[in-house]
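Fold sample X.
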Amino acid sequence: MTDETRTPTQIDKIADAWVDTLAELEPTLATYIGRSEYNDRFGDYSPAGQERLIAEGRRTLAALSEATAVDDIDEVTKDDLAREIQLGIELHEAKWHLRDLNVIASPAQDIRSAFDLMPTDTPEDWSVVATRLQAVPGAIDGYIQTLREGIAQGIVPARRQVVEVVTQIGRYTEDGGFFSAFAADAAPAEGQLPASLARELADSANAARVAYDELAQFLANDLAPAASEKDAVGRELYALHSRRFLGATVDLDETYEWGVEELARMVAEQESIAHEIKPGATVEEAVAFLEQDPARKLHGTEALQKWMQETSDRAVEELGRTHFDIAEPIRRLQCMIAPTKEGGIYYTGPTDDFSRPGRMWWSVPEGVDSFDTWRELTTVYHEGVPGHHLQIAQAVYNRAQLNSYRRLLGGTSGHAEGWALYAERLMEQLGYLDDPADRLGMLDGQRMRAARVVLDIGVHLEKQRPDGNGTWDADFALDFMRRNVNMPDEFVKFEVNRYLGWPGQAPSYKVGQRIWEQLRDEVAEREGDAFSIKQFHKRALDIGGVGLDTLRFALSR
């Protein structure tokens, strides 16, 4: 980062205005990036709301096309923002919004999860929460209108996703579920809430519960009977989603074959390390051996959170002295147990002013109470430093040079998750995974990501199964995943359902890592003896969030 503040250009102003537009039209997105002025409401999830969003995208795209870049930063912004908006238009024209329902990242989850990131320290904060809770019924109603339009046009999600989301909503709305617990836990640090506000919160939370129950009834009674029995979305739609999550165009058939080869390589590497852990052992035997080691086991979410935080703090402190320039605001990373029990581990970035720090979240499924440190050490590096937190928080910190789009909204899953997998391998190279057990855990994750490339493309493009017995389907995908990961079956089932309903996202991790490594090698070859890996990392991270095609373009300049 340079201390010299950039004078905003015409393209910077267009990009910043686009962020303002998105914040207004998608208040949950505004909450995610730390803008609080829209925290009391939701956007319009109806077909009319979608049309307005696309109209604003077309207007911004036209303004970008007429603007002239004045420097390299402008060139990158113009290239990336135009790609992003154009892709959104293409997805809209493919009518994806009419079938946008899955188990992890659709309005069914986004409306609820907005509350996870809202401030709750003061009575004033809780008053805003109550107002947004009152807005849940309207948001749900708009979403139902959109899904109903999908039914009318015969554009519907897979039945599997509908059934799973109905079950998910049941956990939100049951006694002791998210909404009742959220309102009951309202107790700001400076004192109890006024009785009138506590009643308002309880009433608002109950209204939100009722709205979600109505969504579940619509899903079960109206959408499920009309939904598709097929999980595959097909090549054309899958190609759009692949571009969406990578910010790059790849040959899907070549990528599938590469995924098969990469998976075989991960298996061979795991087998070699298994012998180091226990001579002559298979991978399964080495895993069983490690799972019996009490020194590598954590019990309960409190112990898990404490271990995550201590591991993260140590990595930040040590890497900040030796391998990375980590500014003071970036050094704060909170490790959290998520309020849901859906499975999955994820990261949320800091607000623009770092008043809310970056956070690593662990959503622990019901019934899971023990955790293996050898398996999860690399996860902390993936989500924290040098993974997501270093990458995303560095872009936020670089406000003197980057507009708000580049700091807060730019980038793709392939850019972010590809970097995080790249970071896992980097930590191995830096000696943080010298223990064979920790390396086995890292490879367990890498193997899973390679398997997802094969599974995701295989299912959605309905390719021939690796065993030659027909085409990929959900049952084979679940069996395939069980054979390639070592994790509780609750995680495996959730993961496979996620891939089936969120096409193109799962492969973006491993394919993104592949592209990051290709770019590093291209720059190293071009620069020869002058190449510095530390400088490459700094230069790449200072670019901020971009698609991987834009990253390649930027690093070639």
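Fold sample Y, listed below.
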Amino acid sequence: MTVRTPHLPHGRHFAVTWSIPDDFGGMTEAILRRSRAFSEVAGTPVDVLTFDARPDHPALAERLRQTGALSDGIRILNLYDWLREHELPEAAAPTPPVTVDAPIPEGAPSTARMRDGRVVSRMVRDGGGGMLQTDHFRADGTLLLTDRRDVRRRGTLGGRRLVLHDREGRPVRAWTRAWALYADWLDALTDHTPSYMIVDSKTIAPFMQTYRRPHVVSVHLIHGSHRDSAGAVKSSRRAALTSARHFDAVAVLSRTQARDLRRDVDGLPPVAVVANPRATHTGDAPIGPRDAASGIVVASLTKRKRVSHAIDAVVRANEGRSTPLTLDIFGDGESRGPLERRAAGHPEIRLHGHDPRARDRLAAASYAVFTPHSEGFPLALVEAMAAGCIPIAYDVDYGPGDIIHHGRNGFLVPRGDVAALARTVARVADLPEPSRQRIRERAVRSTSRFTDEAVCRQWAGVFGLALVRRSLRGRSAVRAAVARWPRVRAAAPSAVRVLARFGLLSRVQGRRVTATPPA
């Protein structure tokens, strides 16, 4: 059988996030893997855009490249570093009056950020820690940008003015909101070229929903749960979701979340379901017999992950056993100290801290334990299954229940039930080896929909959906029914299937709809 290479729409492709932290976790890892899949499988380079002012972006990118997290075809572009090297084009509309804001004087009480022995930014705060002014500098020491937040009264928070300076120190552009600067940067990057932006970060999503350009398609991908413990929309998500209609589509990582999101938020654009690609090296391990007692956890050590439950479950499961079960925990975070104290006196529980090769250990583990409060898409769960681990997971929103078929390719446990978790861990260890082997094989097979090729095809469908929706926005189906339906099929082969899935096919059935790329 011939497998067709996935085709993404022609144009520039971007992943939009706020920052890439040093100890990045699931979302950033998913961004980089998806971007690599776009580049290597679909032949589509991706620029990852960041807006934070950390001083060491070049060093960070180099570290990521050395570890293989950043592959060819992917660039990380940061707003401030880009401005240090490039000129913004002339403003298309009048800007606020450009007045000179004096930089922070040398010797004034301030905090400096350094790169290669040079100051890249200097900040002054008020007595309560509020940011009053930040100056950004080029590598040659010339002033790049002043960002004042005490415009109304010097030394007191109120108002904002950002002023861009040329290399001779002359003020050339000014903005009263950072969002206006962000928009000018995106305009310079896209340069009227058809562009596709996946907005990953909830921090930058409120701005991105205001960035509307005829040549830009934007899709907001929600990586985590949108609900809090009471079942309401999280306050951290509300700003982006209440105005999400301004995106061309919204994507989530599981079918159950798509269902709940449609119920919880009115006026959404079409909600698509996509997957994050699993690591390319997982699934290559032999799926032969393993030490039945060997368990593993790969997770950030935070309260949300509840790794303490995994520790307690294995300790309970070992009560009365002659051969103890083991649990190797890979990860780091603010809960590491308390977890180490919890595991003290239990040599079968081993905490290894952060290890970039932790996923390689999945090939030797018999079972993997997942105990989070909530998920969007448990990437570590899919990787464990692809490596032949038997997953034992809390049945939380969202993700595990969409991936695990209880008793066939893994086991679901009622959320928060440590006693049931302990019983399940013991049950898996006590299964006959042929039964464990069958479960492992099913687990591996069930991850085929998370390959790079499958994920690229899913995104091709999402972009096709976004293009069709854009063609219908503000028009009746009749006015939209022009004679270019074949171009829809050419630009997005899955468009018909996508339209049917989201209830839009009835609007255009028997008619031809324009869905050409944005121009």
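Sample Y note: The radius of gyration is 25 Å.
Also: The chain has 18 helices and 19 strands.
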